Every structure is written in structure tokens, then in C-alpha cells.
Amino acid sequence: MKKIAFFVGEVAxxxxxxxxxxxxxxxxxxxxxxxxxxxxxxYGSNIFHGYGEKNIIHIPDLNDYDGIVLAGDTFNVEGMxxxxxxxxxxxxxxxxxxxxxxxxxxxxVLIENYEPICNMVEHFIQEHGFQRxxxxxxxxxxxxAQLRLQAYRDTMERHGLPVTEHMVFHGNxxxxxxxxxxxxxxEEGKPLPQAIVCANDYxxxxxxxxxxxxxxxxxxxxxxxxxxxxxxxxxxxxxLTSIRVNYRDMGRRAVLMLENLWQGRDAGEGLDSVExxxxxxxSCGCAQDIDRESVRRLFLNKEKLQSALYHGxxxxxxxxxxxxxxxxxxxxxxxxxxxxxxxxxVCMSDEGEQQEEKAANMTHYTEHMILRNVMTxxxxxxxxxxxxxxxxxxxxxxxxxxxxxxSTLHEKNDCFGYVVLKxxxxxxxxxxxxxxxxxxxxxxxxxxMYKENQALNxxxxxYGRDELTGICNRREMEKAxxxxxxxxxxxxxxxxxxxxxxxxxxxxxDHFGHLEGDAALKALADILxxxxxxxxxxxxxxxxxxxxxxxxxxxxxxxxxxxAIRQRLRQFNxxxxxxxxxxxxxxxxxxxxxxxLLNCLQLADKNMYLEKNGKKYAxxxx
Length: 622
Hints:
By secondary structure, the protein is an alpha/beta fold. The chain folds into four domains: 3-110 and 248-262, Rossmann fold (3-Layer(aba) Sandwich), CATH 3.40.50.2300; 114-245, Rossmann fold (3-Layer(aba) Sandwich); 296-452, Beta-Lactamase (2-Layer Sandwich); 472-614, Reverse transcriptase/Diguanylate cyclase domain (Alpha-Beta Plaits). Helices cover 44% and strands 19% of the residues. Strand 13 (368-375) and strand 14 form a beta hairpin. Helix 11 runs antiparallel to helix 13 (429-452).
């Protein structure tokens, strides 16, 4: 029977829930197996939390699936989509379907962005006789935002209506820019817009709220429309005119496309386009009825959210008091039971393998995992079953046609494990699941800290230094990078990251012993510490990996320091009696407001590997 993987961010959010329900609907009809890999994105101010969320892509064996579906525009972690899609291109042979995001490397299920906006602008021109129609667009870099803006401009041009600079505002698809957008539309001192067409509902809601705050009546003075027809739009007063996209249909269509490809047909053969319809309501004066079913659901959601908030207030206190894994699971089951579910499996990294990885400053999931606990709504049962991570669960717990939700347990980028959830009520995951995952992870981090650091002074000494080389370790580097990034956000002052990878460490270990390998690592660390400059911080971030953070805006200074490192390496080899040469591959990148930190780190790594791959260095004895 066929097996499908679905990668999605914040699975319980409205669009994601609609798509997921459509996928599940078709999967259940056909008896397929579905594994949903859910991440919660890079919430909070610490960007390194995103690393831990991103690591969910390394849990499964991607080659174990007959088809893969990506909701790539829901990944709220920089570089996650790029890293996952590069892995898919490199490793898998099965078809990959991208939702709402055109990617020429894969098949896509796209919605029509141009025609619906044309129709909405036409509605205001033809049905209402409006001429001064403003447009609130999404981010200029996003393809769908570009198409929707172009549709607005083209429709206005067809009717001979002018579009001035202050009739278009570039928003962010969220509901925090209403005041700024309205100030922009009114800046020319001209009369109020007759209508404001927004590229999505959240921005439309923000416009409606700001119009209300300024005492401007909707639709009597200004009409407003959105796109997506989210539930919040349907229950607002007045209800929002919008463009309804059937996201359940989109999810179902993705599975049907896979079926076509499995059977050797064209991906879209026999499939209609995703259903999109205009919904004309109170915000344009065409109807005043409120969606009663949406109001009923809103009331039920409010009751459940209040319950989740009530439990959340005491959850952190109760988790903070636990000192053993068993106590943690007992408290965890008490709070997760607010969500209806069938079974929840807690899988933790293998401690033996984890210790080996930590010695090398690695933070990935271990090759083998341990099923530590199985929860139901009425009990939690300790387990100790070892299995290969890529199997997700021990074989005895799998079944044909299963639907599993997988989410990570981590603190920043320290991966403790993951949870696997079986539920027939995925819509309830929005109430407390994310908070529960965070609380469990924080408790695990605290318990691990207590276990590994018995004395506070010992903890302080060990925390920031690499035990072998004496220079800073990965944790200290993360703190430095976060500090520099915060400074960049406040001042705009860029900085540089240099990534170094020692060449041939395995050769040295294999031919001259691990003690000699350790000596080589120390020698390279000493060179980096000596040449990092006053504005630099050098760290060993992995087994043979090093990094320097340079708080300078001068590319020339950075290149001078890299040249000094290379000169030091040559001097070491000229004066050393070692039976090998000390060498390192080096790459660097600038972090500024146009190149965010995670992208900068990836670019520095890419540049370093370009140099390493270009070498034909055999590391023979001299």
C-alpha cells in the first residue's frame, strides 16, 4: 500500500488544517499511509530555535515514501524549504508535490491569483461604480503577491482609471499594518478611497479595524475586500467580502496527482482546477448576513481556548517541579488529555549515541531512538524499545493506513527526540499542543542540565569552552551570533561569519592515531585564536568544524585575517616535524539586513565546501 509524507508548518492553522483535511480524506478513501511532519516555526526572538524545528526534515527516510507533499510556504524557518528541497532532489525518486508554491523542480498545485483579483476589482467598478480603488499588496518578493498586484493594476488600466503611488501599499500578509497602510492611502490629501482591495484577509481585517478606530464607516464610506475567506473574515462585523479558496480541495488534488503519476499518467490528467469563488458580503454592501455556522464554531473555539489558557497557566509551574522522566510523563499526560487523541508516543534520542555526538558538538537526532513512553487519554506507560530513527516507531506499533503526526522535542537546536501522535481530531491540536510540546522540551532541557552539571561552578566553566582545544564551543558561538544579529537589527551594522573545516582529520586519525588528530585540532584552534583579531570570536563548533564571528563591516579586514590564517598554516607546516600537513577549507559570508543570519551561515558553509570540493589534497605523509 502507498505511503505519503506531508511536510507542513503549524498544521492546525486554518489554511494548513484545510489542506490536511483534504489529504486525509483521500488517503482514508484509498487506505494509504500518511505521515505528517509538523513544525511550529521560529517563534520567539532566538533564531536558533528554528534550527531545532528545521531538524524535523532529518527524522524520516525520505526514500521510504511513494510520494511527498510540501506546504513550503508555511515553513517559518529561514532556509528550511531550501534545505529540504535540496535533500529531495538529491535523495528521492518518488514524485514531489508543492502546494501554493511554484517550483520548477517538482509538480505543483497552485491557486489562480490573477483572475480572482481582476474579478474583485471589476466588481467594485461595475457593480458599485467606484473609481478610486486602493490596493494593499503582500511582500514584493512573493510570486502570488506580484500576480495579485498586477491583476489590480491591469484591471484599473483597462477601465482607464489612474493608479498613483499612494494607491498601492506593500503589506506583509498579517494584521499588524492597518494603521500604516491607511496613513499611506490618505497621505496625498485626497478624499477617502471608495474601496480598498487587500491581497489577503488578515490585511483586510487590519484595515477594517483601523477604519473603525478612526470612525470611518464600512461600507458606507469605504468598502473593503480580502482574499482566502478565513473564518475570522466570515464572522467580522460587517462580514468581509472575500475570495473563497477551497483548500480541502487543494489537499485532495495533491493526492490525486500522486495517483496519476503512480499510474503513469500526466499529473493533472482528469483533474479540475482548485475551486475559487468570490463571496460578496457586508464590507462591500452586497449582503449583511453573518455566517451562523462560523459564529457557532467561533463560540466553541473560544470556550476551548479559554480552557487551554487556564490549563497553560498552571502547566509551566507543574512541569517546573518534575525531576524525573517518569514524573514528566505523568504531568504531561494530565495536560495533553485536554486534546482528544488516540495514542501519543514519546521517542527519545539514544543516550549512548547522544554522548558520542555531544563530544563532537553535534546536535542532530541519533541514528537509533528509544520509545520511552506511550500515552493514551487514561494512562501513560513507560517503555524502553530501541529502533532505527528512520522507522519513526518500532515495527510493532505501525499499521497499514495509519495517519501519524510527528513533531520535534528540542531546546534551541539540541534535539531530545520527537512525539508521534495518532488522532482523529487534528483540529484540536490548535488549542494546547504547541504549548505542551514547548513545556515538555523546556523541562527536558532543565533535567538534562541538572544531570550533566552537578555543581553550578562546574557548569559555568564547562558551558562556554571546548574541552579539547580550550577555545569557545558551539554554545558560546551561538550566543555571540545572536548578540551580533540583535545589534544588526537595531543599528543596521553588518558583520561576517567565517566557517572552517579541517582537511583530512580522518586521515590523521586513521594513520597516526587519535592523539595526533587531537593535537592537529589544537594546533588549528591556536592559529584561529591568534588570528581572529580584536573584533573576532573563534569557536570549535563540531568534530573538525570551526567558526569565527567577526564584528566588522570591512570585507577587506576579513580577507586579511583569512590570509593571515593561511600564512600561519604554512608556517606551521614549514617548521613542524609532523608526518602530515595542517590544512583547512575556509568560506565566509556577510550578514546584513538583506542576508539574514541563517542564510548567512548557510552561504558561508556553501563557500567553504566549494573550496573543499575544489581541492585535490591527499594528505600524504611528508
